[in-house]
Amino acid sequence: MIELSLIGIGTGNPDQVTLAAVRALNEADLILLPRKGEAKADLVDLRRMLCQSLLEPEAPVNVVEFDLPVRDRRDDYLATVDDWHDAISAVWGELIDRHLSGSGRVALMIWGDPSLYDSSLRIAGRLQSSGRSINLTVVPGITSLQVLTAEHRIPLNSLAEPVQITTGRRLREDGWPGGVNAVAVMLDGGGAFTVISSEDVYIWWGAYLGMDKQCLIEGRLADVADRILERRAELRRQHGWIMDIYLLKRDNALVSVQSVRSGDVPDKGE
Fold it and tell me: What pLDDT score does 102 carry?
């Protein structure tokens, strides 16, 4: 039996890794660390740092790095993602077979939480259907959405109001979701908020949340949209990659936010 643990590690800040995550890492026989190319070397460096700081010296854990397959960029998005997940599952399976010989505990560190816009659970499902005997465990982690609201000191939802969590691609294609005044946007390739009318919209934006290079900007979208785009492009050039997220609210969803704020949060990381 293979015990596979998907461990949420928050945004890579050791202070945000739960005790349950630390325990699961130390109980593993094998930890797999994905490499995503030179441009995103920071991501594997952070995972290495977590292993060095969180693994007990006596823990007999084998840490193995591997190159993550690259997703094809052809037009059929869902089909390319499906093929990509197949390729990743095959790599996971090959590494597990090679290093565990049919039994043992393997762990993967997942940014944020495995449940929120992350594909590790779907990839693990492919492994389970491949004929391997795999027991799956999920260790929840702090999400970038939680860090965004914490750093800006705001509640995610307005009083008695729903929130829509979506992606930049869906916002570009479909516009503002119906029936909600608050929208959290993840996985935006850059500037999807420019497709919506900005006059009555407020934005809280954050990049590299929880990291030492964290950057925050907030304000009325009409006033700060260009600044966010410029800062985002500058950060991407500087670091070679970027992870950002933002929350949008219309004016009639701002009352509960303004009632709990003691003052404006200044832009950070600028």
Answer: 78
